């Protein structure tokens, strides 16, 4: 669409974590870097322009279209891949909503950070999928523990991915610190608390067994942000609706592709 506006292009890019990461990476690459680091998708799209964003989209798509190994890996744990995508988009939208409701932090920053804070999860899952593709059998006990393994390693892996891809400092900070206890309550950490609180509630909705692990994080972030029980219930309702909406859209898209 040659007449697509930059605002609409930014909205489309924001719907996919892989594309959002790719656009941010290219916008901050030596070929395009300016006086300031790009931290929002809108600024990244403005810096790159329509044509270059299209090239990035093609590059991201080609990774799976033209690499049989990648397609094989994604054929394993199909349901989990869908959950990870839905959780990332829901965390982004929920973080932006909470930022605007509280009038704290920057809604555009927390949107990007919410989208990319758990990059370590799909990277870890792909590593496990590659074992299955390589012919190593995964028994029921292995499958049962996969989610717990990913939970243990995703922060370290995600931090390494952010740094290897030269993503902006702020989402990298959130990726590396969102499970830390005793986070400062002011400055740039306000946004970290927003993403952490939203992400924790998303994860709790998916996996209630994580409640004990995230309870202290939720309590600390609620205190840091001044979130009361009413706001917390409103946020939980918002996330429930977002999970349903995003998950339905993701499943419909995959059905169209299959057809």
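Sequence proposed for the structure above (259 residues):
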């Amino acid at each position: 669409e040659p007449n697509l506006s930059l605002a609409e292009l930014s909205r489309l890019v924001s719907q996919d974590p892989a594309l959002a990461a790719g656009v941010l990476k290219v916008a901050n690459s030596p070929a395009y870097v300016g006086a300031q680091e790009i931290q929002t998708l809108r600024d990244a799209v403005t810096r790159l322009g329509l044509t270059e964003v299209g090239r990035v989209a093609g590059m991201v798509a080609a990774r799976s279209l033209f690499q049989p190994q990648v397609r094989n890996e994604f054929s394993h744990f199909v349901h989990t891949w869908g959950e990870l995508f839905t959780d990332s988009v829901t965390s982004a939208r929920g973080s932006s909503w909470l930022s605007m409701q509280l009038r704290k932090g920057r809604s555009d920053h927390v949107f990007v950070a919410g989208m990319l804070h758990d990059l370590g999860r799909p990277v870890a899952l792909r590593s496990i999928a590659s074992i299955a593709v390589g012919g190593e059998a995964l028994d029921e006990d292995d499958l049962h523990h996969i989610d717990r393994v990913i939970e243990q390693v995703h922060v370290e892996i995600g931090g390494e991915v952010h740094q290897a891809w030269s993503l902006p400092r702020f989402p990298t900070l959130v990726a590396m610190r969102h499970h830390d206890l005793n986070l400062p309550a002011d400055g740039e950490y306000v946004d970290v608390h927003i993403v952490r609180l939203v992400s924790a509630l998303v994860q709790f909705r998916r996996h209630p067994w994580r409640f004990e692990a995230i309870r202290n994080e939720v309590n600390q972030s609620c205190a840091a942000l001044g979130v009361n029980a009413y706001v917390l219930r409103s946020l939980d309702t918002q996330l429930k609706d977002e999970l349903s909406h995003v998950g339905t859209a993701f499943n419909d898209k995959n059905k169209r592709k299959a057809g």
